[in-house]
Design brief:
With 233 residues, the chain is mainly α. 75% of the residues lie in helices and 0% in strands. α3 runs antiparallel to α4.
C-alpha cells in the first residue's frame, strides 16, 4: 500500500510534464495596424461669377434716357436710389460680380420706375404746351388762313397722341415739341396775315375818309365863291 502512493504521485507528475510539453506556449497578440484616417475630400472651387456686362449696359442706357428728358425731377426718390445702386454696381464690377449684379439689377428696376412715373408727367406737360400753341392757331383761324401748314402741324400732333397712348416717350416727346413749334409758326403767319388785312382795311378807311374830306372841302369852297353845288354832290 505504501508503494502505491509514491507510484501515484510519480504518475501524476509525469502527466503534468507531458501535458505541459504538448501545449505550445501562447504567442502575444500582434497589434492591429492603425487604419489611415480618411482625408476630407476637397470641395470643388465655386464657379466664378461672370461680369454683369449686360446689366451694366442696360442700367447706363436707362439713366441716359431718364436724364435726356429730365424724368428724375418727377420721381426724385427712385432716381436717387437708382443712381446709388448704379454706382455700387460699378464699384463692385470685376471685384465682386455677384454683388455688382445685385446692385445693377436694383438700379434697372428703379430707373424703370422713374420712367413709368416721370414719363406720363413729362408727356402730359409736352402735350399741354402743344395744346396751347394749337389753340392760339385756332383762335386766329389758321386752319383757313394757313391751311396747308396747319394741316401738317395737326398731323404731327395727332401722331404724338397715338405715341403717347403707346407709352413711346421718345417719339411722343419729339412730336409734341415739333407740333408745338409748327403751330407757333402757323399762328405767327396767320397773325401777320391778319395784321396786314387790318392795316389794309384801315388804310382804305383812311383814304375814304380823306377823299370825303376833300369832297367836303371842295363843296365848301364852291359855296364860299358863290357857286351853286350840283344836287347829289
Amino acid at each position: 500500500m505504501r508503494r502505491l502512493v509514491p507510484l501515484a504521485v510519480m504518475a501524476g507528475a509525469l502527466f503534468l510534464v507531458v501535458s505541459c510539453a504538448s501545449t505550445p506556449p501562447q504567442k502575444p497578440a500582434e497589434p492591429v495596424p492603425e487604419q489611415p484616417k480618411e482625408q476630407p475630400k476637397e470641395q470643388p472651387p465655386a464657379a466664378a461669377v461672370p461680369a454683369p456686362e449686360a446689366e451694366l449696359a442696360q442700367a447706363k442706357d436707362l439713366k441716359q434716357k431718364v436724364d435726356a428728358y429730365g424724368l428724375g425731377d418727377y420721381a426724385p426718390d427712385d432716381y436717387a436710389a437708382a443712381n446709388q445702386d448704379l454706382q455700387a454696381g460699378e464699384d463692385a464690377y470685376g471685384k465682386d460680380n455677384a454683388a455688382s449684379k445685385k446692385s445693377l439689377d436694383s438700379a434697372i428696376t428703379e430707373y424703370n420706375a422713374v420712367i413709368t412715373k416721370g414719363g406720363a408727367q413729362f408727356l402730359a406737360k409736352a402735350q399741354s404746351a402743344a395744346d396751347a400753341s394749337k389753340k392760339a392757331a385756332d383762335d386766329l383761324k389758321a386752319s383757313v388762313a394757313v391751311k396747308d401748314d396747319y394741316a401738317k402741324a395737326d398731323e404731327v400732333y395727332n401722331r404724338a397722341i397715338q405715341e403717347k397712348n403707346a407709352q413711346d416717350i421718345e417719339n411722343a416727346g419729339k412730336d409734341f415739341a415739333s407740333a408745338r413749334d409748327q403751330f407757333d409758326a402757323v399762328a405767327k403767319t396767320a397773325q401777320e396775315k391778319k395784321d396786314a388785312a387790318m392795316q389794309a382795311m384801315q388804310s382804305a378807311q383812311e383814304e375814304q375818309s380823306a377823299s370825303q374830306q376833300k369832297a367836303d372841302d371842295a363843296e365848301k369852297a364852291l359855296k364860299d365863291e358863290g357857286f351853286s353845288v350840283p344836287a347829289g354832290k
